[in-house]
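Checklist before submission:
- one chain only
- standard amino acids only
- sequence pasted in full

Submission:
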Amino acid sequence: MLRRVSLPIIAALSLLVPVTSQLYAQSPLPIASAEDRAMARSILKDLIEINTTDTQRGNVTAATEAMQKRLLDAGFASQDMQLLGPDPRKQNLVVRIRAAGTPTAKPVLFLCHVDVVEALRSDWTTDPFELVEKDGYFYGRGSEDMKDGDAVMVATFLRLHREGYKPKRDLILALTADEEGGKFNGAQWLLNQHRNLVDAAFVINLDAGGVQLERGRPVVAAVEATEKVYSDFQITAVNRGGHSSLPRPDNAIYELTTALNKLAAFTFPFELNEVTRAYFKKLADQESPPVAANIRAILASPPDKSAIERLSAEPSFNANLRTTCVATRLNAGVANNALPQTAQAIVNCRIFPGHSPEEIRQGLTEVFGDSQLTVKYVSDAGVVSDTAPDRKPISPPAPIPEVFDPLSRLVKAIWPGIPVTAVMENGASDSIYFAQAGIPCYGFSAIAMERNDDRAHGRDERIPVDSYWKSLDFFYSFAKELGDR
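Returned file contents:
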């Protein structure tokens, strides 16, 4: 059982970075050369232009093999990398930079998934599986989630190898499959089947955290300390159907859409935990006066209800304040001239820590208030069941100095004047598998993004080019500092 972390420890994480006026360009941080940037861009291009969706067109192995070839061509020893997995199209790549001599500590694992969600060309203004650079952004499926992190870490390992870097402890990079869904989650499979390859003192997960921008101004560097629980539910309405020339208001589509409208109008209760409370407390010192006033009002006892409503209007704030559920897929009917006999929807929920998927399944049933509907749980592998599991959330790991001392110094050098704080990941990530295995996991991407421009999983996904270069500089220095400890 994972140890619970008290508020004082989480709050201490929030105080790690003092205010400074030092400019990034004037800092002693090593900046990637033009050649290193060109290499990192080339790697990002290769990854984005390989379709790694969980579809017939997608193939994770094509991407991991391409990265393996780059590493082998650069002189990495074949025994220092393994390409393995339970499915030929879902092979994971594990790469190791070995310590000089006897390691002084357990390894550091950098965790990155290679798969992406589906994207249709007809939905985008650019080809989603082509890297497009325009207006200061890199566009492409996975540019934010999370082939940017994959590319940065492969580029970092290549640069360290070229320079002959020998750490005091092993550095491991895992590029994995099926984080976004599918039957062959690579992180879970590696832990269960080949733990020796990924066993580490701690994990740095590039699929979480990062620097939040407000109109171009950095306001906070957020490090994932816990995350919501991901759950899918299948909502089904069944009706006798009939001829479309004799419409009836009780057809399956009507029943289903009525239920979904109830869900759209429903708001889960406001909640804070030790991580989100510390996050908002630190954020209040960085926000504009109106937003800061609302934040302080929700932290009061009792919290101000009107302030909760005002903050909830901003999606990124709302997701930190409660469980959220939203319909993401619809399917109904068999013919244009027949009333539907069956209508189904998938409702995706991101569950606030402390609540189980089964509790939320039962809650959805109450919200719908229709005994003719069924609400079933859908597993990551697509298996539908009448009840949902009691999946436990991540308990926040303590902010160990060997991670947060260098992280804080680098944040100070690149984004001066902003605090580092713990954050609850509003999505879900593979951190949960390592946390359940007793390995501390810290999520930080080092990508700076506008709070209201998160396009992961959406149309025209993009990241600022400048953010990509800063992430490249951050992880080169971060990897070396972690390896030297």
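Reviewer check: The domain at 229-268+323-385 is CATH 3.30.70.360 (Alpha-Beta Plaits).
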